[in-house]
Amino acid sequence: MPSRSPHSTMPPALIVLTLALLLGIQPITTDLYLPALPGLTQELGATMAQAQLTLTALLLAFGISQLFWGPLSDRFGRRPVLLVGMAAYVVASTGSAFSTTMDLLIVWRILQGAAMGAAVMCARAIVRDLYTPVQGASVMSKGLSGLGVIACLSAPLGGFLTAWFNWHVAMLALSVFGAATLTLIALRFEETVPRKNPQALKLGILARTWFDIVRNPTFLAFTALTVAAYSGLFTFLAASSFVFIRVLGFSTTQYGLVMFSNSLVYVLGTFLCRRLLLRFGVRRAVAIAGALTLTGGTTMGLLALAGVQSAWAIMLPFGLFILAHGIHNPCGQSGAVGPFPEAAGAASALNGFIAMLSAFATGQWLGTHMDGSAAPLIYGIWFWSVLIALSAWTLVARYGKS
Description:
The protein contains 14 helices and no strands. The chain is an all-alpha fold and 402 residues long. It has one domain: MFS general substrate transporter like domains (Growth Hormone, Chain: A, Up-down Bundle). The protein is globular.
């Protein structure tokens, strides 16, 4: 597979770096402050449901905003959308860091999520702008390897900054990341849309475009996979800091190391993804990953049913889940936009919106079911593991492109 796109003069390494930063904005925005979440909740006198809202509201704004960013980027290009989105992200991150009440923090997190939508949506669309669907899965996995490295550093850094300073400093680190990404886009990134669509924002045409996308079986198959995969991951993200810190007694630094190990396994999964794609193609790679996911989720659930409660009973099975996520994520994201070279922004937006809507519902469920035990986390991941495997073995197997 060629590493250089025929549609861009940007060096391949610059494209991968740009993708890594744009995609990595999601885990750093969620993971870096997770070690601070219990302490933040206590300092601001908030309830657990309000604490969950700082995550779920961010993700709902993230999902909804993509419905607007996608058509805008098809009409005006990826570059201007990225410049506006990243500038707004820096402002929102700074506002979050200096919040004095939980309500104010939630407001800033909503704006942060909306700005984050521009980055992630454009990243998925850029891959389709520059590469064929099969090439895109490989390039996406390289960008997601970079995401994994960012995720590896996020939680330990958040734990360190929280332990040595406070949660305000941890949140301020997001402003630094956003400013660095904005600088790269402004100085080095070239427009990737081959032909801007002047009709992209007309409501009638936009409605027909969305209708064509949502009735495409390939889009639906890969979107089902990405929705289930991200919802399972979000279950862990939303509940793990309370489970490991409050239930299992981990320090914020120890919890940061747990997140580091998960991210490292995810990076290994993205490398495994590229090997499986070369040997088996997309559908079989996803099917193999489905088996890993189901094994991990079921093992975690059965250990809980047997009364085994320890960090290892969660971490080891979840390692299989996150390894497989390194395969499902690039294949699912590139596969969902693959059929739509002329509407990659709109397709990317719908895929992201549906995934975040599911994550929001998952977060709301967790906010009302966290009962001081690890059960909601464990059984939630088991539930999504089953759906991931079913999506991989049925929908993607039938409608996915090899």
